[in-house]
Amino acid sequence: MSILVESLAIPEVKILRPKKHGDARGFFSETYTERDLAAAGLTLTFVQDNHAFSAEKGTVRGLHFQTPPFAQDKLIRVVRGAILDVAVDVRTGSATYGQHVSAVISAEAWNQILVPIGFAHGLVTLEPNTEVLYKVTNYYSPEHDKGLLWNDPDLGIDWPIGEADAILSEKDKRQPRLAELPVCFPYV
Ligand SMILES: Cc1cn([C@H]2C[C@H](O)[C@@H](COP(=O)(O)OP(=O)(O)O[C@H]3O[C@H](C)C(=O)[C@H](O)[C@H]3O)O2)c(=O)[nH]c1=O
């Protein structure tokens, strides 16, 4: 087992901890193995790798999700810098609908977060020049790319940055609040 897998308070969201093999040259790490995820009951087929660079601390991306049939599971890691990563349950009918979990994901901690289908995903950078790499289980589809307002007070997310200081895309400034969200993921 090269990757330890543990659940957050909403158990569908997982934290992964790959082993790092250090030596005098530096380190080697198996950052993803299908085998370790399958051993944790996670049978996912990733079809796309993404890389997001954010120059400034306080850069907010999200809260985003793609709707079916282009819904995505996401496996996120940070190879430089650090983020506060947030996953909001948007599965209508779920006992934790509208609730969230968060975790600091960083190059130093060498940890990862798995955000499954049915969750809106977002992050804020905690350091400048932060690089986020993530695998997704479906291709990008702009028509199915939806979102949630990052600082919707109904979500109660304790972001480490205020609206005045957050660096956001114009799209993310205009995302709907949870109360305005249509049913995207009926929970069965
Ligand atoms: C997501 C995506 C974007 N793009 C293009 C579309 C735009 O021209 C440009 C930036 O897209 P966007 O502003 O949506 O990127 P982020 O704000 O980083 O969005 C991501 O941020 C949060 C953290 C997420 O969870 C999603 O993975 C993703 O939505 O990249 C692509 O070509 N392919 C893609 O898969």
From TrEMBL:
Keywords from the UniProt entry: Isomerase
Assigned EC number: 5.1.3.13
Entry keyword DNA-binding: no
Molecular function as annotated in GO: dTDP-4-dehydrorhamnose 3,5-epimerase activity
Catalytic reaction(s) noted: dTDP-4-dehydro-6-deoxy-alpha-D-glucose = dTDP-4-dehydro-beta-L-rhamnose
Biological classification of the source: Bacteria, Pseudomonadati, Pseudomonadota, Alphaproteobacteria, Rhodospirillales
Family designation: Belongs to the dTDP-4-dehydrorhamnose 3,5-epimerase family.
Enzyme class: isomerase
Gene3D superfamilies: Jelly Rolls
Subunit and interaction comment: Homodimer.
InterPro entries linked: RmlC-like, RmlC-like_jellyroll, RmlC_Cupin_sf
Name of the protein in question: dTDP-4-dehydrorhamnose 3,5-epimerase
Function: Catalyzes the epimerization of the C3' and C5'positions of dTDP-6-deoxy-D-xylo-4-hexulose, forming dTDP-6-deoxy-L-lyxo-4-hexulose.
GO cellular component: cytosol
Pfam families named among the record's database cross-references: dTDP_sugar_isom
Pathway assigned in UniProt: Carbohydrate biosynthesis; dTDP-L-rhamnose biosynthesis
GO terms classed as biological process: dTDP-rhamnose biosynthetic process; polysaccharide biosynthetic process
Site (Participates in a stacking interaction with the thymidine ring of dTDP-4-oxo-6-deoxyglucose): Y140
The species this protein was found in: Pararhodospirillum photometricum DSM 122
Residues of the active site: H64 (proton acceptor), Y134 (proton donor)
